[in-house]
Amino acid sequence: MDTSSAWCKAPDDEPLGKQVSRMLFELTGRMRAHLAAVADAVDLTPMQARALHHLADPCPMGEVATRLHCDRSNVTGIVDRLEERGLVERRQDPTDRRRRMLATTPAGDRVRQQMAELMVAGHPILAGLSVEQQAELRDLLATVLGASERSPSPEISAADMATADRLNP
Protein backbone atom coordinates (compact mmCIF):
# COMPACT_ATOMS: atom_id res chain seq x y z
CA MET A 1 0.00 0.00 0.00
CA ASP A 2 1.28 3.45 -0.87
CA THR A 3 1.42 5.45 2.34
CA SER A 4 3.38 8.36 0.94
CA SER A 5 0.53 10.85 1.36
CA ALA A 6 0.60 12.82 4.59
CA TRP A 7 -2.90 11.71 5.59
CA CYS A 8 -1.83 8.04 5.34
CA LYS A 9 1.10 8.43 7.71
CA ALA A 10 0.30 7.52 11.26
CA PRO A 11 2.32 7.57 14.43
CA ASP A 12 3.70 4.11 15.14
CA ASP A 13 1.44 3.76 18.19
CA GLU A 14 -1.80 4.94 16.55
CA PRO A 15 -4.45 2.21 16.79
CA LEU A 16 -5.62 0.69 13.51
CA GLY A 17 -9.23 1.76 14.09
CA LYS A 18 -8.14 5.37 14.49
CA GLN A 19 -6.08 5.19 11.29
CA VAL A 20 -9.06 3.83 9.35
CA SER A 21 -11.38 6.44 10.87
CA ARG A 22 -9.01 9.26 9.97
CA MET A 23 -8.76 8.01 6.38
CA LEU A 24 -12.53 7.65 6.12
CA PHE A 25 -12.92 11.27 7.26
CA GLU A 26 -10.50 12.34 4.54
CA LEU A 27 -12.31 10.28 1.88
CA THR A 28 -15.67 11.64 3.01
CA GLY A 29 -14.41 15.19 2.56
CA ARG A 30 -13.07 14.39 -0.89
CA MET A 31 -16.32 12.68 -1.89
CA ARG A 32 -18.35 15.67 -0.69
CA ALA A 33 -16.17 18.04 -2.69
CA HIS A 34 -16.54 15.87 -5.80
CA LEU A 35 -20.32 15.62 -5.34
CA ALA A 36 -20.50 19.41 -4.92
CA ALA A 37 -18.62 19.86 -8.21
CA VAL A 38 -20.89 17.37 -9.99
CA ALA A 39 -24.02 19.01 -8.55
CA ASP A 40 -22.75 22.43 -9.62
CA ALA A 41 -22.13 21.11 -13.16
CA VAL A 42 -25.84 20.21 -13.46
CA ASP A 43 -26.97 23.35 -11.60
CA LEU A 44 -28.17 21.59 -8.44
CA THR A 45 -27.22 21.85 -4.79
CA PRO A 46 -25.42 18.80 -3.37
CA MET A 47 -28.55 17.86 -1.41
CA GLN A 48 -30.76 18.15 -4.50
CA ALA A 49 -28.27 15.97 -6.40
CA ARG A 50 -28.34 13.37 -3.64
CA ALA A 51 -32.14 13.38 -3.58
CA LEU A 52 -32.31 12.95 -7.35
CA HIS A 53 -29.74 10.16 -7.14
CA HIS A 54 -31.95 8.26 -4.67
CA LEU A 55 -34.99 8.43 -6.95
CA ALA A 56 -34.01 5.61 -9.31
CA ASP A 57 -37.46 4.21 -8.57
CA PRO A 58 -40.54 6.06 -7.29
CA CYS A 59 -40.61 6.18 -3.51
CA PRO A 60 -42.40 8.04 -0.71
CA MET A 61 -40.97 11.29 0.62
CA GLY A 62 -40.24 9.66 3.99
CA GLU A 63 -37.99 7.11 2.32
CA VAL A 64 -36.06 9.89 0.57
CA ALA A 65 -35.62 11.60 3.96
CA THR A 66 -34.30 8.35 5.42
CA ARG A 67 -31.86 7.87 2.54
CA LEU A 68 -30.67 11.48 2.89
CA HIS A 69 -30.40 11.13 6.68
CA CYS A 70 -32.47 14.25 7.22
CA ASP A 71 -35.87 15.31 8.50
CA ARG A 72 -38.90 14.95 6.23
CA SER A 73 -39.57 18.68 6.50
CA ASN A 74 -36.21 19.38 4.83
CA VAL A 75 -37.05 17.06 1.95
CA THR A 76 -40.16 19.08 1.11
CA GLY A 77 -38.10 22.14 0.15
CA ILE A 78 -35.57 20.05 -1.76
CA VAL A 79 -38.30 18.30 -3.72
CA ASP A 80 -40.16 21.58 -4.34
CA ARG A 81 -37.07 22.97 -6.08
CA LEU A 82 -36.52 19.78 -8.09
CA GLU A 83 -40.18 19.83 -9.10
CA GLU A 84 -39.94 23.50 -10.16
CA ARG A 85 -37.09 22.49 -12.48
CA GLY A 86 -39.21 19.69 -13.94
CA LEU A 87 -36.90 16.96 -12.64
CA VAL A 88 -39.32 15.18 -10.28
CA GLU A 89 -43.04 14.91 -9.82
CA ARG A 90 -45.32 13.88 -7.01
CA ARG A 91 -47.64 11.01 -7.85
CA GLN A 92 -50.36 9.24 -5.99
CA ASP A 93 -49.25 5.89 -4.59
CA PRO A 94 -51.23 3.24 -6.51
CA THR A 95 -51.43 1.06 -3.39
CA ASP A 96 -52.35 3.80 -0.89
CA ARG A 97 -54.24 6.84 -2.18
CA ARG A 98 -53.33 8.82 0.96
CA ARG A 99 -49.62 8.64 0.21
CA ARG A 100 -47.66 10.60 -2.40
CA MET A 101 -44.74 9.09 -4.27
CA LEU A 102 -41.79 10.94 -5.74
CA ALA A 103 -40.65 9.99 -9.22
CA THR A 104 -38.21 11.40 -11.71
CA THR A 105 -39.43 12.87 -14.97
CA PRO A 106 -37.66 12.13 -18.28
CA ALA A 107 -35.65 15.34 -17.71
CA GLY A 108 -34.80 14.13 -14.21
CA ASP A 109 -33.69 10.78 -15.60
CA ARG A 110 -31.35 12.56 -18.02
CA VAL A 111 -29.83 14.67 -15.22
CA ARG A 112 -29.45 11.54 -13.03
CA GLN A 113 -27.60 9.82 -15.88
CA GLN A 114 -25.40 12.87 -16.45
CA MET A 115 -24.57 13.00 -12.74
CA ALA A 116 -23.70 9.28 -12.72
CA GLU A 117 -21.30 9.79 -15.62
CA LEU A 118 -19.74 12.87 -14.01
CA MET A 119 -19.31 11.07 -10.67
CA VAL A 120 -17.12 8.46 -12.38
CA ALA A 121 -15.30 10.79 -14.76
CA GLY A 122 -12.35 12.36 -13.02
CA HIS A 123 -13.27 10.76 -9.72
CA PRO A 124 -10.59 11.81 -7.23
CA ILE A 125 -10.61 8.47 -5.44
CA LEU A 126 -10.95 6.05 -8.35
CA ALA A 127 -8.52 7.87 -10.66
CA GLY A 128 -5.44 6.32 -9.07
CA LEU A 129 -6.78 2.78 -8.89
CA SER A 130 -6.48 0.00 -11.44
CA VAL A 131 -9.64 -1.83 -12.53
CA GLU A 132 -8.66 -4.71 -10.25
CA GLN A 133 -8.19 -2.36 -7.29
CA GLN A 134 -11.56 -0.73 -8.01
CA ALA A 135 -13.18 -4.19 -7.94
CA GLU A 136 -11.44 -4.97 -4.64
CA LEU A 137 -12.58 -1.64 -3.19
CA ARG A 138 -16.14 -2.26 -4.40
CA ASP A 139 -16.20 -5.66 -2.69
CA LEU A 140 -14.74 -4.30 0.54
CA LEU A 141 -17.19 -1.38 0.55
CA ALA A 142 -20.09 -3.80 -0.02
CA THR A 143 -18.94 -5.72 3.05
CA VAL A 144 -18.62 -2.54 5.11
CA LEU A 145 -22.01 -1.22 3.99
CA GLY A 146 -23.68 -4.57 4.65
CA ALA A 147 -22.21 -4.74 8.14
CA SER A 148 -23.21 -1.17 8.92
CA GLU A 149 -26.81 -1.83 7.80
CA ARG A 150 -27.07 -4.64 10.33
CA SER A 151 -25.62 -2.49 13.13
CA PRO A 152 -27.75 0.29 14.55
CA SER A 153 -26.22 3.75 14.55
CA PRO A 154 -24.55 3.96 17.92
CA GLU A 155 -25.33 6.68 20.36
CA ILE A 156 -22.23 8.24 21.84
CA SER A 157 -22.42 7.69 25.56
CA ALA A 158 -20.77 9.57 28.38
CA ALA A 159 -18.53 6.52 28.86
CA ASP A 160 -17.45 6.73 25.19
CA MET A 161 -16.64 10.41 25.63
CA ALA A 162 -14.64 9.70 28.80
CA THR A 163 -12.64 7.01 26.96
CA ALA A 164 -11.95 9.39 24.07
CA ASP A 165 -10.87 12.12 26.49
CA ARG A 166 -8.55 9.68 28.26
CA LEU A 167 -6.97 8.61 24.94
CA ASN A 168 -6.60 12.21 23.69
CA PRO A 169 -5.51 14.34 26.66
Shape call: globular
The overall pLDDT, averaged over residues, is: 85
Cα(first) to Cα(last) distance is 31 Å
How much β-strand is present in the residues? 5-15%
Number of helices: 7
Model regions low in confidence, pLDDT < 50 over at least 5 residues: none
By secondary-structure content and strand pairing, the structural class works out as mainly alpha
Order the strands across the largest sheet as they lie in space. 1-3-2
Report the major sheet. 3 strands, antiparallel
How do the helices and strands follow one another from N- to C-terminus? Answer: HHEHHEEHHH
Features:
169 residues; mainly alpha; three-stranded antiparallel β-sheet; 7 helices
How would you describe what is shown here?
The protein is mainly alpha-helical and about 170 residues long. The protein is built from seven helices and three strands. It has helices spanning about 15-40, 45-55, 60-70, 70-85, 105-120, 130-150, 160-165, and strands spanning about 60, 90-95, 95-105. A three-stranded antiparallel beta sheet has the order 1-3-2. The longest helix has 26 residues, at about 15-40. It is globular. The chain starts with 15 loop residues before the first helix and ends with a helix.
